[in-house]
Amino acid sequence: MSGEQMTNKIYHEHKAKGSTYIKKAAEKSILHAENQNFKTTPAMTLGSAFHVMNLEPELFSSQFVFEEINKRTNVGKARVLELSDMGVTILSAEEFEKVQGMTASLNRHPLAKEMFKGGVSEMSHFAELDGVPAKCRTDYEKGGKIIDLKSCIDASPEGFASAVAKYGYHIQVAYYVDVYNAANSAKLTYEDFFFVCVENTAPYAVAVYTLDKDSYETGQKLYKKVLKEYKNYLSQTNPLEANLEAGYYAGILSLSLPLWVHSKAETRITEIEEGEAV
Length: 278
Fold this sequence. Notes:
Elements lengths: L3 E2 L2 H6 L5 H9 L2 H5 L7 H14 L4 H4 E3 L7 H12 L3 E3 L1 H16 L3 H4 L4 E10 L2 E11 L2 E8 L4 H11 L1 H16 L8 E7 L6 E4 L3 H22 L4 H5 L15 H19 L1
Parallel strand pairs: 2-3, 6-7
Antiparallel strand pairs: 1-4, 4-5, 5-6, 7-8
Helix pairs in contact: 2-10, 2-11, 4-7, 10-11
């Protein structure tokens, strides 16, 4: 099916596999992906508030509130509980200032600000990839392009490349592009996926990136391997129980140390030998 507009909650409740599941399975194992324990961190709260303010501004006031609450008092505790029951997230003064600063910086960037005009935000797509129900939820779509808004610590080329490797964004790009194409009979490539990165500390620098072909293909190979592993997992009589103790590999593996460990050891051995020769 083509793109749909739905709430974030409904999207996440859909049983199709999203990129978060795929990235965890690629990083660790199917067992880890099946048993993810999601905890909201301050960075995630900040990123979510930034997204809503810029992609769904009409929802911001119903999802976030800026209040200084003394959580040690009965009144403060009652207020926190009230807002929590309403599904409202409390932002501190510092967090709210950051969201405003990031938004102002995004709107000052000549290219980035135009990328978020004239398109649609938060579209959900569902398709089948290699026999597995798959889904993706794009931040923004415009003219056959997918634009992903990222809040980050370091938006420099070196810094964001490190984040791509750490958080599996190359897997996300490949997965999103392929899910989108399968759902919409489209022909997007890795060049049609853009990252708009905004640092979450002053001066809130902004950068726009695309992923190169090699990185995209590596991400694609990884997610396809995960889908194959997932189908094998489902073919077991009781897949969850069968993988509880395995996780990685049921056999014995030979472990190799990183090259830098050997290099460091050789350097230290040389120092000792030279000291003995004196």
